[in-house]
Amino acid sequence: MRDISIKAVIIGLVADVGGTAAFFLVFAILGGILLSSMGRGMEELDVYAKTTGFLVLSSFGGSLFSVFGGYISARIAARAEIKNACSTGTLSAVTGVLFLILSPGSSPLWLDLLCLIAIVPCSALGGYLRLKSKQEKRISTET
To answer: Which residue range is the domain that position 46 belongs to?
Structure first.
Protein backbone atom coordinates (compact mmCIF):
# COMPACT_ATOMS: atom_id res chain seq x y z
CA MET A 1 0.00 0.00 0.00
CA ARG A 2 2.98 2.31 0.52
CA ASP A 3 3.66 2.20 -3.20
CA ILE A 4 0.31 3.76 -4.02
CA SER A 5 0.13 7.54 -4.11
CA ILE A 6 -3.40 8.67 -3.24
CA LYS A 7 -2.71 12.07 -4.81
CA ALA A 8 -1.53 10.49 -8.07
CA VAL A 9 -4.49 8.10 -8.20
CA ILE A 10 -7.02 10.90 -7.61
CA ILE A 11 -5.43 13.19 -10.20
CA GLY A 12 -5.35 10.30 -12.67
CA LEU A 13 -9.03 9.64 -11.95
CA VAL A 14 -9.90 13.29 -12.58
CA ALA A 15 -7.93 13.19 -15.86
CA ASP A 16 -9.75 10.02 -16.92
CA VAL A 17 -13.31 10.91 -15.92
CA GLY A 18 -12.99 14.62 -16.70
CA GLY A 19 -11.34 13.98 -20.05
CA THR A 20 -13.97 11.39 -20.96
CA ALA A 21 -16.80 13.76 -20.05
CA ALA A 22 -15.21 16.62 -22.00
CA PHE A 23 -14.63 14.35 -25.01
CA PHE A 24 -18.26 13.18 -24.93
CA LEU A 25 -19.50 16.78 -24.65
CA VAL A 26 -17.34 18.04 -27.53
CA PHE A 27 -18.31 15.03 -29.64
CA ALA A 28 -22.02 15.69 -28.97
CA ILE A 29 -21.66 19.41 -29.75
CA LEU A 30 -19.89 18.67 -33.03
CA GLY A 31 -22.60 16.15 -33.88
CA GLY A 32 -25.26 18.78 -33.13
CA ILE A 33 -23.50 21.34 -35.31
CA LEU A 34 -23.25 18.80 -38.11
CA LEU A 35 -26.92 17.88 -37.83
CA SER A 36 -28.06 21.51 -37.74
CA SER A 37 -25.86 22.35 -40.74
CA MET A 38 -27.75 19.60 -42.58
CA GLY A 39 -31.04 21.31 -41.67
CA ARG A 40 -32.07 18.81 -39.02
CA GLY A 41 -33.68 19.76 -35.73
CA MET A 42 -32.31 19.44 -32.23
CA GLU A 43 -34.70 16.59 -31.47
CA GLU A 44 -32.64 14.49 -33.88
CA LEU A 45 -29.57 15.13 -31.71
CA ASP A 46 -31.06 12.88 -29.03
CA VAL A 47 -31.58 10.15 -31.62
CA TYR A 48 -28.02 10.68 -32.92
CA ALA A 49 -26.56 10.46 -29.40
CA LYS A 50 -28.11 7.01 -28.97
CA THR A 51 -26.81 5.49 -32.20
CA THR A 52 -24.38 2.62 -31.86
CA GLY A 53 -21.75 4.47 -33.91
CA PHE A 54 -21.83 7.52 -31.65
CA LEU A 55 -21.73 5.39 -28.51
CA VAL A 56 -18.87 3.20 -29.75
CA LEU A 57 -16.78 6.22 -30.82
CA SER A 58 -17.50 7.95 -27.51
CA SER A 59 -16.48 4.80 -25.65
CA PHE A 60 -13.27 4.60 -27.66
CA GLY A 61 -12.51 8.19 -26.65
CA GLY A 62 -13.23 7.26 -23.04
CA SER A 63 -10.81 4.35 -23.31
CA LEU A 64 -8.10 6.69 -24.57
CA PHE A 65 -8.69 8.91 -21.55
CA SER A 66 -8.38 5.85 -19.31
CA VAL A 67 -4.92 5.31 -20.82
CA PHE A 68 -4.18 9.00 -20.24
CA GLY A 69 -5.42 8.86 -16.63
CA GLY A 70 -3.24 5.82 -15.96
CA TYR A 71 -0.24 7.57 -17.49
CA ILE A 72 -0.82 10.71 -15.41
CA SER A 73 -1.21 8.65 -12.24
CA ALA A 74 2.01 6.74 -12.95
CA ARG A 75 3.93 9.91 -13.79
CA ILE A 76 2.87 11.73 -10.64
CA ALA A 77 3.47 8.71 -8.40
CA ALA A 78 6.94 8.15 -9.92
CA ARG A 79 7.00 4.65 -8.37
CA ALA A 80 5.04 1.43 -8.83
CA GLU A 81 3.71 2.95 -12.04
CA ILE A 82 1.47 0.09 -13.11
CA LYS A 83 0.08 -0.40 -9.60
CA ASN A 84 -0.85 3.30 -9.35
CA ALA A 85 -2.34 3.25 -12.85
CA CYS A 86 -4.42 0.16 -12.01
CA SER A 87 -5.63 1.86 -8.84
CA THR A 88 -6.78 4.80 -10.96
CA GLY A 89 -8.50 2.38 -13.33
CA THR A 90 -10.25 0.62 -10.47
CA LEU A 91 -11.63 3.90 -9.11
CA SER A 92 -12.64 4.89 -12.62
CA ALA A 93 -14.51 1.59 -13.03
CA VAL A 94 -16.30 2.20 -9.73
CA THR A 95 -17.21 5.67 -10.99
CA GLY A 96 -18.49 4.07 -14.19
CA VAL A 97 -20.69 1.68 -12.22
CA LEU A 98 -22.11 4.63 -10.27
CA PHE A 99 -22.91 6.43 -13.54
CA LEU A 100 -24.64 3.29 -14.83
CA ILE A 101 -26.73 3.08 -11.68
CA LEU A 102 -27.68 6.77 -11.95
CA SER A 103 -28.53 6.59 -15.66
CA PRO A 104 -29.63 3.05 -16.49
CA GLY A 105 -30.37 2.19 -20.10
CA SER A 106 -28.56 5.21 -21.55
CA SER A 107 -26.45 2.86 -23.68
CA PRO A 108 -26.57 -0.82 -24.59
CA LEU A 109 -25.63 -3.20 -21.78
CA TRP A 110 -23.02 -4.96 -23.93
CA LEU A 111 -21.20 -1.68 -24.48
CA ASP A 112 -21.39 -0.73 -20.80
CA LEU A 113 -19.91 -4.08 -19.78
CA LEU A 114 -17.20 -3.90 -22.44
CA CYS A 115 -16.18 -0.43 -21.27
CA LEU A 116 -16.13 -1.46 -17.61
CA ILE A 117 -13.98 -4.47 -18.42
CA ALA A 118 -11.59 -2.33 -20.49
CA ILE A 119 -11.02 0.48 -17.98
CA VAL A 120 -8.39 -1.18 -15.78
CA PRO A 121 -6.38 -2.67 -18.69
CA CYS A 122 -6.44 0.71 -20.46
CA SER A 123 -5.24 2.44 -17.30
CA ALA A 124 -2.56 -0.23 -16.86
CA LEU A 125 -1.44 0.47 -20.42
CA GLY A 126 -1.00 4.12 -19.46
CA GLY A 127 1.11 3.09 -16.48
CA TYR A 128 3.15 0.75 -18.68
CA LEU A 129 3.74 3.50 -21.25
CA ARG A 130 4.97 5.81 -18.49
CA LEU A 131 7.24 3.10 -17.12
CA LYS A 132 8.73 2.43 -20.57
CA SER A 133 9.20 6.16 -21.14
CA LYS A 134 10.97 6.46 -17.79
CA GLN A 135 13.22 3.48 -18.57
CA GLU A 136 14.09 4.80 -22.03
CA LYS A 137 14.95 8.19 -20.59
CA ARG A 138 17.19 6.55 -17.99
CA ILE A 139 18.96 4.49 -20.68
CA SER A 140 19.52 7.52 -22.91
CA THR A 141 21.07 9.52 -20.05
CA GLU A 142 23.41 6.62 -19.18
CA THR A 143 24.90 6.45 -22.67
So the answer is: 6-103+123-142
